[in-house]
Specification:
The complex is a heterodimer of chains A (498) and B (156).
Chain A (H helix, E strand, L loop, with lengths): L1 H11 L2 H19 L5 H12 L4 H26 L8 H12 L3 H34 L4 H19 L4 H15 L2 E2 L6 E2 L13 H19 L23 H23 L5 H15 L2 H6 L5 H17 L1 H7 L5 H12 L8 H4 L1 H29 L7 H20 L2 H19 L5 H23 L6 H4 L1 H24 L1
Antiparallel strand pairs in A: 1-2
Helix pairs in contact in A: 1-17, 2-3, 2-4, 2-17, 3-4, 3-9, 3-15, 3-18, 4-5, 4-6, 4-13, 4-15, 4-17, 5-6, 5-13, 6-10, 6-13, 6-14, 6-17, 7-8, 7-20, 7-22, 8-20, 9-18, 9-19, 10-11, 10-13, 11-13, 15-20, 18-19
Chain B lengths: L4 H21 L16 H19 L15 H21 L1 H15 L5 H6 L2 H14 L7 H5 L5
Helix pairs in contact in B: 1-2, 3-4, 4-6
């Protein structure tokens, strides 16, 4: 492991990679800060640029964008009560009341320190857990992978959209259907191409991400421009107050951070869960840990209430890398985007990644530490200035997002068809978003579609067409058991509601 | 049963799944693969049935929390104009070239979204695209096709 850490440090500390972490953190912070735009949009916009670098640098850049966006999301939560990303919704519960009390600077500093501590602690957990998990996952067979993918898709459907399980499952199926377009990987038979050469290679992953996130988010912002429910109450962006914390506040944070980082990391590791659930759970659990007097302050500007979700959402971001790096199965929509980008580089993450490409495996882990330090150095002194970005008029922001999306596709294919397809999918995605159809399950399904079919093919061929493979191995049966519990629970909840 | 837009979308998805399933059954596979435990058709067929199952459930089950969208407050016109500009941009980018079409796309988008300060519109379109092109083409060595710049002799 020491050798791996040194390889990682050597790769992560090159000038180019340090620069990428900085750019990633800065860019991510800005994008994450803008309400409506989250880490997935930020990473999607970065993908075409990452293809100009080697895989390790590309992944380091995307990881930097990821942390930056999650941290940036907390800034708009605190200052505007308009979370930039779902993972920072819980941050606004106590962050915004603090800002209203004239302590915006303090709230932003608590968020910055908690994010830093949460991310750093989780990176330490990842450092020790990832190699051992990789060894365990070497014993996984095709049926286990197939079952695990079903569990991941079901879990993201269950967690990504509150009370909208069926809608999320429809998006999962749509994502898998889109992934099936093009040549079959084994027989080279074309499917769903309707005799169009443009679809023979299938639909590009970048196109799908750009269309369903960057572009459709931009269109949604324009569409809802005059919606009174979208109007945010403004906190002064020029007078944020002091960012210095007193001893009492520091002590409160010291108690909250360790427990919230563990919760965040563990939730992040689970497929489909991620930063949103981690932050809500940490917030809820923190309320049970504190004294009755402190409990009363929750929702009115509590330090515990702000530090807990901020620590947990950053810890969950690191946790989400565990299934990605060790099993090759993304735990969240954002890591699904990263998986797609890695596949684009010709790298298949999984248990053998740290043997075949140790520089990628370890440099990503090491760059997490560096990324956290840079985030703190970058964000803390720059908070008053960065906050002003929130005032960027949408008249400029939206065309620029559309421009980056279209350019991303253009430089990849030089094909009008792809641009039209992207616009078409973006319009449909915008309409679906209006009616609360979640997009992360679609992305995860699209990324996993090929792998899922491949593992199902192998399993069925080994078992000679019988579905016995689903319960032949105890591990497969246990994973499928979890899936059945999630599906049954969601359907039971739907019936109970009705 | 209460009919709302979510149900209509689910019905459309159900119809799409039926069409997908029909197309999946019509995928031509090699004759020796026809009766294999798994061929190019197998997975899409399962997907078609799964799509019908979930959308069917959504149609049948009553919905308590209906999503209400206030269409009066939505900016359909501006969104449609923006989509139209993007389509024109997509249609002309290969023939005219990256620099001119992108600059015009940005300038017209700013204008239609309500910006009237011409200097800002200009600065955030033509020079901005030139700088971005330099970054992609000059620094990152990403090829950008541009017949217009080639014609006027700026690009080799």
């Amino acid at each position: 492991m020491i050798e791996g850490i040194l390889i990682g440090l050597k790769t992560a500390l090159t000038f180019q990679n340090l620069l990428m972490v900085m750019i990633g953190c800065f860019f991510g912070t800005i994008i994450g800060m803008l309400p409506g735009l989250g880490p997935m949009t930020a990473i999607a916009l970065m993908i075409p640029i990452t293809y100009g670098f080697d895989p390790a640098t590309g992944l380091i850049l995307m990881a930097g964008v990821y942390y930056g966006a999650v941290f940036g999301g907390s800034t708009s939560s605190i200052l505007l009560n308009a979370p930039g990303v779902p993972g920072t919704v819980a941050t606004s519960f106590d962050g915004y009341p603090m800002a209203q009390q004239g302590k915006a600077g303090k709230a932003l500093a608590i968020a910055a320190y908690s994010s830093f501590a949460g991310g750093t602690l989780a990176a330490i957990y990842l450092l020790f857990l990832a190699p051992s998990l990789s060894k365990v996952s070497l014993s996984f067979r095709s049926p286990d992978y197939f079952a695990l993918m079903i569990l991941g898709l079901t879990a993201i459907a269950a967690f990504s959209s509150k009370g909208q399980f069926l809608k999320a499952m429809m998006m999962v199926i749509l994502g898998l259907m889109l992934a099936s377009v093009g040549q079959d990987s084994l027989s080279d038979i074309t499917r769903f191409t309707f005799n169009t050469m443009n679809l023979t290679d299938g639909i590009s992953f970048v196109l799908i991400v750009m269309a369903t996130f960057a572009m459709s988010e931009a269109l949604t912002i324009i569409l809802k421009r005059n919606d009174p429910t979208q109007a945010a109450k403004q906190v002064s962006l020029t007078e944020l107050g002091s960012i210095k914390l007193n001893k009492e506040e520091r002590n409160k944070m010291l108690k909250t951070i360790p427990r919230s980082s563990v919760i965040g990391f563990l939730i992040g590791v689970l497929p489909g869960a991620g930063a949103t659930i981690a932050s809500f759970l940490a917030y809820g659990m923190e309320r049970n840990f504190v004294s009755d007097e402190e409990k009363q302050k929750f929702g009115k500007g509590s330090v515990h209430g702000l530090a807990a979700p901020e620590t947990a959402n950053n810890a969950a971001c690191s946790g989400a890398f565990v299934p990605l790096l060790t099993l090759g199965i993304p735990g969240s929509g954002t890591t699904a985007v990263m998986l797609g980008a890695l596949l684009g580089f010709g790298i298949q993450p999984g248990p053998r990644l740290y043997i075949t490409n140790p520089e990628i495996f370890w440099s990503v882990i090491m760059s997490m530490y560096i990324g956290m330090v840079i985030l703190l150095i970058l964000n803390l002194p720059l908070i008053p200035y960065i906050a002003r970005i929130l005032a960027v008029p949408k008249n400029y922001l939206i065309p620029l997002i559309l421009f980056f999306s279209i350019t991303g596709i253009y430089v990849m294919s030089f094909n009008n068809f792809d641009i039209f397809l992207m616009i078409g999918i973006a319009v449909i995605a915008t309409f679906l978003r209006l009616y609360d159809f979640p997009m992360p399950p679609l992305i995860l399904a699209f990324v996993l579609g090929g792998l899922m079919e491949e593992n199902l093919r192998r399993s069925l061929l080994i078992s000679d067409g019988s579905f016995n493979f689903l319960w032949d191995r105890p591990l497969t049966a246990v994973i499928l058991g979890f899936t059945i519990v999630i599906v049954s629970w969601q359907i039971y909840k739907s019936f109970k509601k009705n | 049963m209460n009919i709302n837009t979510t149900k209509i979308i689910s019905l459309l998805f159900f119809t799409f799944s039926v069409f997908y399933l029909y197309t999946a059954y019509n995928i031509r596979v090699f004759s020796f693969d026809e009766n294999a435990p798994f061929n190019a058709r197998t997975f899409p067929i399962y997907l078609g049935y799964a799509g019908m199952f979930f959308s069917g459930l959504k149609i049948i089950l009553p919905e308590l929390n209906t999503i209400k969208v206030d269409h009066k407050n939505l900016e359909y016109k501006k969104t449609a104009i923006l989509v139209l500009i993007a389509i024109i941009y997509g249609a002309t980018i290969l023939k005219v070239g990256y620099f001119l079409t992108t600059s015009l796309f940005l300038a017209s988008s700013y204008y239609f979204l309500g910006e009237r300060r011409w200097l800002l519109i200009f600065l955030l379109s033509f020079p901005f695209v030139a700088a971005f092109m330099y970054l992609l083409h000059g620094v990152l060595d990403i090829y950008l096709r541009d017949p217009f710049l080639k014609l006027i002799g700026v690009m080799g």
